[in-house]
Amino acid sequence: MNIGEAAKFSGVSAKMIRYYEQIGLIPKAARSEAGYRHYSTPDAYSLRFIRRARDLGFSVEQIAELLVLWRDRDRASADVKAMALSHAAGLKTRIAELQAMVQTLEHLADHCHGDDRPECPILADLAEPTAAESRSQGPHRTPRFGADTPASSRNRGVR
Known about the structure:
The protein is mostly helical. Among the domains are: 3-75, Orthogonal Bundle (Multidrug-efflux Transporter Regulator, Chain: A, Domain 2); 111-145, no CATH class. Helices cover 58% and strands 3% of the residues. It contains seven helices and two strands; from the N terminus they run ααββααααα. It has helices at residues 3-10, 14-22, 41-55, 60-71, 77-110, 121-127, 131-137, and strands spanning 30-31, 37-38. α1 crosses α3 (41-55). The longest helix has 34 residues, at 77-110. The protein starts with a helix and ends in a 22-residue tail after the last helix.
C-alpha cells in the first residue's frame, strides 16, 4: 500500500509516517521503481500500534520499547505490564500537577478585581520567585512593575 493508504488504515498522517521512518521507529519503506514508498500490511499494523500508543500518551522512546516487546513472541507479559503501570503512575503525577495549576490559577483569578485598576494578583504572583528559587537565592523581593515603580517612570504610552 502507498503512504496515503497506510495513513488512512493506521490513522497516522503521511507526515508522521515519514517522521517515524526517519527516526527509525518503523523500518524504511520499500520503494517502487518510481520512488514511491510502499508499505506492507505488517508495516501498517505497526503504524496502527504506534498511533494507539501515542493516543495513550507514550513517548516515542517508550513506543520503541513497546514495539520491541510486541514483536518478541518470547517476551514476558510482566515486562509490558510494568511499562504500562509505570506510565500510568507518571500520568497520575502529571494530572496532579495540572490540577494544582488549575487550582492556583482559579485562586488567583478569584482574587483579581478584573477592572481598570492596574493591581493584579495574577501578574504579581507570576513575578514572584518559586519556592525552589527562593531557597536557592535567599530572601529578596521581586519588584511589581507598575505598583512599585514611580508614576513618572511608568510607560503609559506615547503622548
